Amino acid sequence: MSASVVDSAAPPVESASTESRRGFSPPSLVWAAIPLLLLAAVLVLIVRTDGGLGDRTVPPIETLSVQRVVLPAPGLIELEVVNGGPDPITVAQVLVDDAYWQFSMEPNGTLQRLQAATVSIPYPWVEGEGHAIALVSATGVLFETDVPVAIASPQADRESFLRFALVGFYVGIVPVALGLLWFPFLRRLGRNGMNFVLALTIGLLAFLVVDMWGAAQETALATVGALDAPLLIPLIALLAMGLLIVIGQTFRRRNQQRREEAGALTLSYEIALGIGLHNLGEGLAIGAAFALGEAALGVFLILGFTLHNVTEGIGIAAPLVKNRPALFHFVGLAALAGAPAILGTWIGAFVYSPFWTTIFLAIGIGAILQVIVEVSRLIRRAQERAGEPALTWATFGGAAAGIAVMYLTALLVAA
Fold first, then answer.
1. What is the pLDDT, as a whole number, of residue 78?
2. Which of 13, 225, 283, 399 could form a disulfide with 199 if both were Cys (CB 3.0 to 4.6 A apart)?
3. Residue 221: which domain range?
């Protein structure tokens, strides 16, 4: 009786022919495609019939986003606009300083959803003064923007490229390199001192994450609403964090023989990458300030960011204190962390885009979060070998000091 019960409860044995029928044979692929084709047909029907409601009698929903205002030459204003609404929109008139003005648009005509265009206005703007601009749609809806301080926008020529490259060099590479000069001093610290510096790195990076999150949210509000840029920030940050974790694990598996030394050097490069993406955002802010004609703000940002970024070199050098890396590694670390500031000033001055700026900042958030995880793991392993908990007065004090240093130096940067 017991044997029959066991036999009846046992799962049936499938034959080889049954298992072969579970493969991706042509009939099974057809059955997989049928629901997709039917779904596509339903979506087309919804679009063609407006969801079954027929012709709408309500007014169209119009949203025109002004992404950038450029003054390329005396007597000319250019606006880069995007139709962020669900309905087509036609720019019928342009107001400058409460007066109707002639304009041209490329491409001309009605803008479809998410279509971009450049509006050119031959207006005799006055250097140093502000100008109010309003675009009027064919249905009478106004979309307003302004020129805070009228000044010729930077031109993408050789001289301008070199000038903004020098600005990025001052803001990014110079302070990071100065911070790396503390490496000989860091090598003299004991275990508690080293844990303090590593925790200081976590504090620095935690401040950068919060700072970049606020900047990304603010920038996302200036993007086209239909792109849902604020929603992309946490998603892209998590994806970037996961990607870097996988890359780091792969790299460590390929360096088993020199695991400790290679792991420390890899971590320093990861820190430099995360800081570099943050410095890219700082460069964008500086370049955009000069493009808007706010030269005083731009100079103030240069001074503030330069002082603010000196502490970043300490965080990059901290994981290397037990090793003696070659000099070219320090050059590479300074370039990786600082050179993106040069790229950022170019982008901000010549081709600034709120949407792509938001994407860059989100990637930077994810990169820095991954580095925080790695540094925390380094502290935990060192403390476990010493038989002590990860959170001690040294590590807590280091994290608090890192946040305090970044906050105090950030006070020198204008909001």
1. 92
2. 399
3. 158-410
**59 inside domain:** no
The identity of residue 27, as a single letter, is P
| Beta carbons within 10 angstroms of residue 4's beta carbon | 8
Do residues 173 and 341 make contact, with C-beta atoms less than 8 angstroms apart?
yes
The answer to whether residues 132 and 144 touch, using CB atoms and an 8 Å cutoff, is yes
**Interatomic CA distance for residues 173 and 264, integer angstroms:** 22
Q: What is the DSSP letter of 3?
A: H
Same domain, 288 and 380: yes
In the chain, the percentage of residues whose pLDDT exceeds 90 is 18
CA distance 281 to 287: 10
Q: Of 147, 174, 206, which one is at a domain's C-terminal end?
A: 147
Is pLDDT above 80 for 24?
A: no
pTM (predicted TM-score): 0.71
* Structural domains counted in the chain: 3
Measured CA to CA, the distance from residue 286 to residue 220 in angstroms comes to 18
In this structure, are 327 and 400 located in the same domain? yes
CA distance linking residue 316 with residue 334, whole number of Å: 9
The residue with greater pLDDT, 96 or 282, is 96
The residue type found at 89 is I
**Comparing 244 with 91, which gets the higher pLDDT?**
91
Among 352, 135, 47, 355, CA closest to 226? 355
Q: 135: domain CATH number? A: 2.60.40
Place of tokens 């088993």: 256
